[in-house]
Amino acid sequence: MPTAVTEAITTLAEAEQLLSLSRSEDASLFTEWQQSLPGLSPTEQSALDGLHCRYLYQRSEGHLLEGIVTLLLASPLLTVAGFYDPPFKVRAEVPITLVINDGEETLRGRIDVLVLKKHLWVVVLESKKTPLSAWSALPQTLAYLAADPTCPSFGLLTNGDDIIFVKLASGQYALSRVFSPLVAKQDLYTTLQVLKRLATVVGESA
């Protein structure tokens, strides 16, 4: 019987062991979140300003559930970044299967939101309730990215308050710094710049 990803992989140590992954501290592995970031147009900045105001307004009433975080933050970000437009395709609740332990065990799970270009996984959004750290989504996100080991994959983890990017390539993963749009609106601007940069990277590799 297949095992659920969320049951088999609950910690980062389990993800690294079961998936044969290691974290890289080499800055050259994940330069896409720092270098050659595109500028933002006045229209994009205005859209982010509105997004930021709405999020702060709703967040002021208390913690937000996963679906609300996706609705208020994740989905609008993907919209402004152009991931809902050609050549990208959007799939939600996408099932994934991982075979581990030399074929002796099968893991299955579902990705919250998956943006695709052809067969390339671009962004995985694991929205968590705001009381939980965004880091809590990292073990499962690595499992989802590992389901397609043929090319570098990028993920975005968020609980709404914090945003973290992850890159997986050749059995190694690297992380960006933590962006905190709840604290600094500029971090929301930079998040969009990183997403636009990743869209360019994907286009170049297609």
Short description:
With 206 residues, the chain is of the alpha/beta class. The protein has helices at residues 5-8, 12-19, 42-59, 66-81, 138-146, 185-205; strands at residues 3-4, 22-23, 89-100, 105-117, 120-127, 153-158, 163-169, 172-175.
- Mean pLDDT across residues: 86
Percent helix = 25-40%
* Count of the separate structural domains: 1
Report the top-level CATH class: Alpha Beta
Q: What separation lies between the terminal Cα atoms?
A: 36 Å
Overall form: globular
Q: Work out the radius of gyration.
A: 17 Å
**CATH topology label:** tt1808, chain A
Give unreliable regions as ranges.
none
Strand content: 25-35%
Number of strands: 8
In DSSP terms, counting alpha (H) and pi (I) runs of 4 or more, how many helices?
6
What is the H/E order? EHHEHHEEEHEEEH
Under the CATH scheme, the architecture is: Alpha-Beta Complex
For the sheet with most strands, the description reads: 8 strands, mixed
Classification by helices and strands: alpha/beta
Structure description:
With 206 residues, the chain is α/β, with parallel strands linked by helices. It has a single domain (3-205), classed as Alpha-Beta Complex (tt1808, chain A), CATH 3.90.1570. Helices cover 37% and strands 26% of the residues. It is built from 6 helices and 8 strands; from the N terminus they run βααβααβββαβββα. It has helices spanning 5-8, 12-19, 42-59, 66-81, 138-146, 185-205, and strands spanning 3-4, 22-23, 89-100, 105-117, 120-127, 153-158, 163-169, 172-175. Strands 1, 2, 3, 4, 5, 6, 7 and 8 form an 8-stranded mixed β-sheet that branches. It is globular. The N and C termini lie far apart (36 Å). The relative contact order is 0.20.
